[in-house]
Design goal:
- The chain is an all-alpha fold.
- It has 2 domains: about 1-65, no CATH class; about 65-109.
- It has 3 helices and no strands.
- The protein has helices spanning about 5-10, 10-45, 70-109.
- It is elongated and about 90 Å long.
């Protein structure tokens, strides 16, 4: 906000600028918190390599989807995870059936 806008402009303009600034600060705070969550997840997936009580540490997979920020994002992620799980199950069933039927045909000949 410029000097002229503050002193010569409309009175409600200062309030609008202040509210916009507060919204930007809240957004920045949320983004910093979210970045901290990503760092936390990355470190917690890796820290087991430095634990002397873990015999065979294995690297955990990093998150496959971003952290949901709203209920709609959460619902969409649940739908996507369900779809992926169903697709994975379908592939496993097809592989099992192919192996089972291929072995059954080899035994019959």
């Amino acid at each position: 906000m410029t000097y002229e806008q503050y002193y010569d402009g409309e009175g409600s303009l200062a309030k609008a600028y202040r509210e916009a600034y507060q919204m930007r600060v809240e957004d920045q705070n949320t983004m910093m918190w979210l970045q901290g969550m990503y760092v936390y997840h990355a470190i917690s997936d890796f820290v087991q390599f430095y634990n002397p009580f873990v015999k065979n540490p294995k690297a955990a997979d990093y998150m496959d989807m971003p952290i949901p920020l709203s209920e709609d994002d959460k619902k969409n992620q649940n739908v996507e995870r369900t779809r992926r799980a169903a697709e994975q199950m379908k592939l496993q069933v097809e592989a099992f059936n192919k192996k089972y039927y291929d072995e059954g045909q080899d035994d019959g000949d």
